[in-house]
Write a structure and sequence with these properties.
Keywords: Signal
Number of strands: 25
Strand content: 25-35%
Organism: Leptospira montravelensis
Protein name: Ig-like protein
Number of helices: 5
InterPro entries: SbsA_Ig
Distance between the termini: 117 Å
Radius of gyration: 42 Å
């Protein structure tokens, strides 16, 4: 019996044909693929022939023909022949023919001429890909700073896109089928020009991540040019051009109030300042937005140190809130930049060494992008009596107060609080101008 070694899957396995082969003298063809009179054959088909005897296979290659003629190559062994067309077969009728010139190893011809007709069907043309979704982030300033609202610009005109959320706002894109990623990355355009990168979720959807925030009150266009291919070979039939309008610029961060912790002064409680000034025991702030900033003697605080401190003792070291300054903002602020931009100094002689001991933020967001609107500072001063001439330490419970001021003469001493314009909001915008106010210790 003859052993088959390279059977085509469409014409059966070796086991299928073991019982068919015999030792008859005349060689025969046992099977064709495609089979005779098959219709709707795949245009990418390969033609396979299985023989009953080991053949002089080159004679069978010479005896093989396909009408109409098609260029291609052969894969062979002693028992089979496979013709692989160079290109897909156009739809229409074809005839495989193998003449008696095909002979076995002993020189015996095939038992007859074989003619096998089949028909190639129309190739299914994949549907052109379409843009299914293009989401942008929209909203008011407050909504944008909280992350914005996802809006599909395919559904209609969009004119309130966030310029930042904070930071550059991403765009979400989804096509109806998997796309050629390289062609998308090379073909995608942003107008006006904007640098960006793409982050793919899968081959049909991705995010456009701009490197900078968007220019306010500017119309942007996102363009996918005609001819970009899907993974199945289909291409965009028309250029896709979507546009949106960025909303107004985010407002500038600014200080809207300044006072003391002892004044019960805070956002949502009593952040209003006074046109006539205030003391540490007033029920309103020193200053609020819309008021003029007065001379320092109109804003009086009391140093928290009472003068009783000595070296190595916790006396006069506990925090007292009559010298804890509070500042309020119109926006959620970047906490690190605000602390770095804050400075308290003594402007009446003699000079002194003042350090920020601790601080407390309030009115904060607990979700991204976080940030806070109210800050309380606690400063320590080297001239305060806590721990003698040295700053407090762990053994004395720390040092949180400015020097005693209960017996200070009028108009002395003066301190200056300064917030540099490097302070920025969570949107990344810096203050246009810094904030400075002078106060008197009394």
């Amino acid at each position: 019996m003859v052993l088959l070694v390279h059977c085509h899957s469409q014409i059966g396995s070796i086991q299928d044909w073991l019982g068919v082969l015999s030792l008859e003298d005349t060689p025969k063809i046992l099977a064709f693929s495609p089979a005779s009179d098959t219709i709707d054959v795949n245009p990418e088909t390969k033609i396979s022939v299985l023989f009953s005897h080991p053949m002089s296979i080159q004679s069978c290659v010479s005896a093989f023909s396909l009408e109409p003629q098609v260029r291609g190559s052969f894969e062979t062994n002693d028992l089979s022949l496979k013709f692989i067309p160079k290109t897909e077969l156009p739809s229409g009728g074809y005839i495989i023919r193998i003449t008696k010139q095909c002979e076995d190893k002993n020189g015996k011809d095939l038992d007859r001429v074989y003619t096998v007709p089949f028909r190639v069907g129309e190739k299914e043309i994949p549907k052109s890909p379409e843009l299914e979704t293009l989401l942008v982030l929209t909203g008011t300033e407050t909504e944008c700073l909280a992350g914005g609202n996802s809006t599909d610009i395919k559904l209609g005109e969009v004119d309130s896109v966030c310029s930042g959320i904070p930071g550059p706002p991403p765009f979400f894109v989804r096509f109806t089928k998997p796309m050629n990623q390289t062609e998308i990355e090379l073909g995608l355009r942003m107008e006006p020009s904007l640098s960006y990168r793409l982050e793919w979720d899968n081959t049909s959807q991705f995010r456009i991540l701009p490197d900078t925030i968007l220019t306010p009150e500017t119309r942007y266009h996102i363009v996918f040019p005609k001819g970009i291919h899907a993974d199945d070979g289909a291409e965009l039939e028309e250029t896709i051009r979507m546009n949106f309008l960025v909303g107004p610029d985010l407002s500038d961060p600014e200080v809207i109030g300044f006072g003391l912790e002892s004044q019960n002064c805070g956002l949502g409680t009593q952040e209003i300042g006074s046109i006539t000034g205030a003391r540490w025991d007033s029920n309103f702030c020193f200053w609020s937005r819309g008021l003029p900033i007065l001379n320092p003697n109109f804003y009086q605080f009391r140093g928290g140190d009472d003068g009783s401190g000595i070296s190595g003792s916790p006396l006069a070291c506990a925090d007292v809130n009559t010298d804890n300054f509070k500042i309020f903002f119109n926006q959620f602020m970047d906490t690190t930049s605000v602390i770095g931009a804050s400075k308290l100094s003594k402007i009446s002689p003699p000079s002194t060494n003042i350090r920020l001991s601790t601080w407390v933020w309030s009115h904060c967001q607990t979700t991204f992008p976080f940030g806070c609107k109210e800050l309380t500072y606690s400063y320590a001063e080297s001239e305060a009596s806590c721990n003698g001439t040295l700053f407090g330490n762990i053994g004395t419970g720390g040092d949180f107060n400015l020097q005693t001021s209960a017996l200070s003469p009028n108009y002395y001493p003066y301190y200056e609080f300064r917030l540099e314009p490097e302070a920025k909001s969570i949107s990344g915008k810096r203050m246009k101008v810094g904030f400075t106010i002078q106060v008197e210790a009394k």
